[in-house]
Write a structure and sequence with these properties.
The complex is a heterodimer of chains A (263) and B (321).
Chain A: E1 2-7, E2 9-11, E3 34-36, H1 38-54, E4 57-63, H2 68-76, E5 82-86, H3 96-109, E6 114-118, H4 128-136, E7 140-151, E8 154-161, E9 165-172, E10 175-179, H5 191-196, E11 204-205, H6 207-210, H7 218-221, E12 224-230, E13 239-240, H8 245-259
Parallel strand pairs in A: 1-4, 1-6, 4-5, 5-11, 6-10, 7-10
Antiparallel strand pairs in A: 2-3, 7-8, 8-9
Helix pairs in contact in A: 3-4
Chain B: E1 5-9, E2 11-12, E3 15-16, H1 18-34, E4 38-44, H2 48-51, E5 61-66, H3 75-89, E6 93-97, H4 100-112, E7 117-121, E8 123-127, E9 130-137, E10 142-148, E11 153-157, E12 173-176, E13 185-191, E14 204-208, H5 218-227, E15 230-233, H6 235-239, E16 260-264, H7 270-276, E17 281-286, H8 293-296, E18 299-302, H9 305-320
Helix pairs in contact in B: 3-4, 5-9
Classes of the chains: A alpha/beta (263), B alpha/beta (321).
Chain lengths: 263, 321
């Protein structure tokens, strides 16, 4: 089984505040800490577990600037076999469709049976997997939280649906799956693991290598244009409710009846 | 824009999701502004009668795409069927609910018809015939205004952000057949054992964090039961193994926008705040007066949650009889 896992280097927003830059066109990147998109760790772990069971290889690919190489290497250190980096000034400003177009070109250079992405990344859209599958004319399932090999042509998969429920289906290979957190427990990667893969060469592809024209990708090819960024309005801080338990609860329920939708 | 608006209604097992009525109401508002036609389309098996429920929200037309292969949601089958309807009806704007299914379907359809998509919009405004969508990025820490370029534009709207407005109307359901084509996926079953209220659509969410101290969520669950609320959890509680991943509210879990969010024993890590700060009213109960969640809350109580929660449950039970 040849597996390709698409990963992304993202600002570590869980631990850091994000600020809008002066002209409102992007974010302040100076003091930003980056890491791998959390969902992608689950996708890589799942790929490694499948390979360990049935054989084959796991290839990590990332679209991004040169700094994304560290993310590819970190994910390789989990136990992947190969890494690829897609970087080119022409890729900048790509929207979801642009990113999917780049990944499609990479998929077509290889011979993959299974393509995994994280369910979503920092812009929260969760769209690249579905778009990639459509462009490749492959079947697709999103929010996958269970994978079982039925035979070398078919997988049984579980998807998370509303209310934490699960939907089971069969899907034919080759296919694209977007992976939800909780499908496994991604292994820990230590410094030693990263050192082990430090000398492996990671091929870098630009637009020319992928046979893509500049107007299909990057800002030129993007149908989604960002106008500006702004910070959501914050509340005025909490009103502290004080007194005995009885008093607090009485006050709270009155407030909720007035504003909180309790009838 | 003279081309019409098409709202993709979402049903599951013969029941519309609440977000369908929100999106249809939003579609009606935009259609009235642009002076264009509003079409609601629903896909499934045996759904013509169900489609009539959409009439009250004011669409000009209601299309029911019926096929036995559409009985359960399968991305491929739905993408093929809907893309066919889009080719035929030629709408300029397509609106989806940003639910599990809506996000999945909209991304595939966007790629199929080669049109741009704005996902998870929290507001859409019209300036002349240009639509500007506001959508959260970086886990809701920032909002971005985006416009789409192209003859067809797709938007998905986050649940609980648009108001449901009954507009009245006299549209009748037109049944349409669909071209499903080959489908490389087969539905096996739905495992609906959780019986949980969906976090992203719930009007009230009651969450517990590290302060719960263990797997026993009964004080939070009891309160949720009397409120008809969904139960959420912080990442800390999920990492401890007290609750499942699907219960996690936060940047790497569910993003919720309920009318009321009650946080018990949640300190308010940035990760969690990203998932719930767009709630309309936030109540935080924590025994640490310095907990960061108090900065985002509307009402705060410094107290032992195990004392307060059962008391609130009891009082609400009294009101609701």
């Amino acid at each position: 089984m040849e597996i390709l896992v698409c990963v992304k280097r993202v600002p570590d927003t869980a631990e850091n505040e994000i600020e809008v830059n002066k002209d409102g066109t992007g974010i302040e990147t100076d003091d930003l800490v980056y890491s791998v998109n959390e969902w992608d760790n689950y996708a890589v772990e799942e790929a490694i577990q499948i390979r360990d069971k049935v054989g084959g290889s796991v290839t990590i690919v990332s679209v991004g600037d040169e700094e994304s190489e560290e993310v590819v290497r970190r994910e390789m250190a989990m136990g992947a076999d190969n890494g690829l980096l897609l970087t080119d000034d022409a890729f900048e400003g790509s929207d979801g469709k642009g990113t999917a177009t780049l990944l499609k070109a990479v998929v077509e250079k290889g011979n993959y049976d299974l393509i995994l992405t994280g369910a979503q990344a920092d812009d929260g859209a969760g769209q690249v997997g579905g778009m990639l599958a459509t462009m490749l004319d492959m079947p697709y399932a999103s929010l996958v939280n269970a994978i079982e090999m039925l035979d070398d042509k078919k997988l049984k998969i579980g998807r998370e649906i509303e209310g934490g429920n699960q939907e089971m289906s069969e899907i034919e290979l080759p296919c694209v799956l977007s992976i939800q957190t909780g499908i496994n427990e991604p292994r820990y990667v230590g410094i030693r693991g990263i050192r082990k893969v430090a000398s492996i060469e990671i091929p870098v592809y630009g637009a020319g290598d992928l046979g893509l024209s500049a107007d299909a990708i990057g800002a030129a090819g993007a149908g989604v244009k960002r106008l500006d960024y702004f910070v959501p309005e914050l509340g005025e801080g909490a009103e502290m409710l004080e007194g005995s338990t009885e008093e607090i609860v009485e006050k709270l329920i009155e407030l909720l009846k007035a504003k909180g939708g309790i009838k | 824009m003279s081309k019409g608006i098409m709202v993709v209604a979402e049903q599951s097992d013969g029941v519309f999701r609440k977000v369908t009525f929100e999106v249809l109401s939003e579609g009606k508002r935009i259609a009235d502004k642009l002076g264009c036609q509003l079409t609601a389309v629903v896909l499934g098996a045996d759904i013509a009668a169900l489609g009539q429920e959409l009439q009250a929200y004011g669409p000009d037309r209601i299309l029911a795409v019926e096929d036995s292969q559409l009985a359960d949601y399968l991305t491929d089958a739905y993408t093929n069927a809907l893309s066919g309807v889009i080719e035929q009806e030629d709408p300029g704007i397509l609106l989806f609910g940003a639910s599990v299914q809506g996000k999945d379907l909209s991304a595939r359809v966007a790629a199929r018809i080669d049109a741009p998509l704005a996902v998870d919009c929290v507001a859409i405004s019209c300036d002349g015939d240009v639509l500007t969508a506001t959508r959260p990025i970086y886990g809701g820490k920032l909002l971005a205004n985006v416009v789409l370029e192209g003859e067809r534009q797709l938007f998905s709207i986050r649940p609980n952000t648009a108001e449901i407005i009954k507009a009245g109307g006299d549209a009748v359901v037109e049944t349409v057949s669909a071209e499903i084509g080959t489908v490389s996926m087969k539905f096996i079953e739905k495992r609906m054992e959780t019986g949980k209220i969906d976090l992203t659509e719930a009007n009230i969410v009651v969450s517990g964090g590290r302060g719960m101290g263990g797997e026993d969520y009964s004080v939070v669950e009891d309160l949720a039961a009397v409120l008809g609320a969904a139960v959420g959890a912080s990442r800390a509680a999920v990492d401890e193994g007290w609750r499942s991943h699907s219960d996690q509210v936060g940047q790497t879990g569910k993003v919720v926008s309920p009318g009321l969010y009650m946080a018990f024993g949640i300190s308010g890590a940035i990760q969690h705040l990203a998932g719930m700060s767009s709630s309309k009213v936030i109540v935080a109960i924590n025994n640490d007066a310095e907990a960061p969640i108090f900065a985002k809350a509307d009402y705060a109580v410094v107290a032992d949650l195990f004392e307060i929660a059962p008391y609130i449950t009891e009082e609400i039970q009294k009101i609701s009889g």
